[in-house]
């Protein structure tokens, strides 16, 4: 069989990566300078593999691991960044199945690959760029490979999250599947290059795990003489159209784009991805004084969400005006890049793109929150003593003080040259744990004096299955009473904003949300339609939304017994939905949120525990 595969009707071909395109990373387990600690393999397991169970040589095996990383990278730009997981299933050299994680809540890469392979999966080998996770408690990644009859699994990278590292590998081996891990069981120069590919494709997750801040890229375009604009400030356009297309791709891979007030005043940018995918990054403006124009393209939040980060107490009237337009204003005691990135970490962001000018780029670098630089160099000379440069004053007076960029790569894009590389790792920053109170009334098992807090947010967290974005369908009635299998609780909740409204357009909104490819897309679509068409939102929504959510939660945990067991296991703990920005369903960044999702889960847990006690009493 050819290695040309079809997904969703689109033929995809995966040739080996072009020489020089993958960025080298120093050290076996070092992602662009951020040292990561991995436990050594167990004694007696370290061995070199000259051949393999499927008869392939080392070079061929390493190429398949690299291709698994490339398949994983296909997900970038379609949904909010997440751990990039890709799976290839092969018989010999032929690829018979593949899959990649599209978003939180979609089928895992392993399940997609075995479904594509069908009967050809029996006795085949699966190549994974990243160890599978088991965040949902249902072992789908492992069980799908085992049930399909996969005889051998090659893992490029152990999972960097501590609660997942080694778990799937151990489970697969316990099922009799041979598992070979690159760098432990598979060694040699070719496998070092394969490991680098796996590290690069998951750089955002690796940096977030190691450094406790989102992975940040500083991007700029400059002339050959190092100017990002003319002396007048005019900057359209420094780079070519092809380079600007690459910038749109970078935006599509990011959770958020950061600019300063100068950029808003001077350029009035849109900062949209324009790549045709579903993911739209958040736009963040950092402005200490809020000296911002009353009207700007960034204040239009229908197509993309905007956050303005400012100093506490700055120009309250401007804050009120921005809030009226739908812009979120976040105040900081002292506005600086480090605190803003810590805030973005708390929001669950993995990847940030900085498109700011030199005045903001310099403190961001000084704070240690920039991990990578992408510089588009155009073959132009503009001159000008006062023309701005990409990085402002760093306080360095000798060339020996210059920051070295490591693992540098070069790529020609039209007439321009893209030079990219990594900066030094940054110190760890600890997230703030949201607090909650008034919980003993919801669940008597919780002691107000000795409380353990379990927070959850992203589906790859230890208790990520408690999230509405977890991939657990619920069988609930439609607006006409007909039962329908909703892809997730989030799909059901967002669609019910428009249930019962006598309007063909509202019914169309419900269908759109039903068909959303992931919970992320359902949430984004539901919120967008609610903002744009408030007249089509059911009039009783604010009074019934808690009831709607609780119905869906009860169905979710009744349909999936392993989730009910997980919820029972949290008895005695406060459950906090650790969203820093949703102050109704979440706990907020500093415990200021109402945490209604956590409260409903604790209430449901109390009911489940009570039912168990009653059943035991009857049986005895």
Automatic annotation (TrEMBL):
Xref: CDD domains: NADAR (cd15457)
Keywords on record: Glycosidase, Hydrolase, Multifunctional enzyme, NADP, Oxidoreductase
EC top class named in words: oxidoreductase
Catalysed reaction, written as an equation: 5-amino-6-(5-phospho-D-ribosylamino)uracil + H2O = 5,6-diaminouracil + D-ribose 5-phosphate; 2,5-diamino-6-hydroxy-4-(5-phosphoribosylamino)-pyrimidine + H2O = 2,5,6-triamino-4-hydroxypyrimidine + D-ribose 5-phosphate
Swiss-Prot/TrEMBL GO biological process terms: carbohydrate derivative metabolic process; riboflavin biosynthetic process
Record InterPro entries: CMP_dCMP_dom, Cytidine_deaminase-like, DHFR-like_dom_sf, Eubact_RibD, NADAR, RibD_C, RibDG_C, Riboflavin_Biosynth_HTPR
Coiled coil: none
Pathway(s) per entry: Cofactor biosynthesis; riboflavin biosynthesis; 5-amino-6-(D-ribitylamino)uracil from GTP: step 3/4
Biased composition regions of type Low complexity, renumbered to the chain: 26-35
MF annotations from Gene Ontology: 5-amino-6-(5-phosphoribosylamino)uracil reductase activity; diaminohydroxyphosphoribosylaminopyrimidine deaminase activity; hydrolase activity, hydrolyzing N-glycosyl compounds; NADP binding
Pfam families: NADAR, RibD_C
Annotated EC: 1.1.1.193
Domain CMP/dCMP-type deaminase: residue ranges: 59-180
Region (Disordered): 18-51
Protein name, entry field: 5-amino-6-(5-phosphoribosylamino)uracil reductase
Protein source organism: Phoenix dactylifera (Date palm)
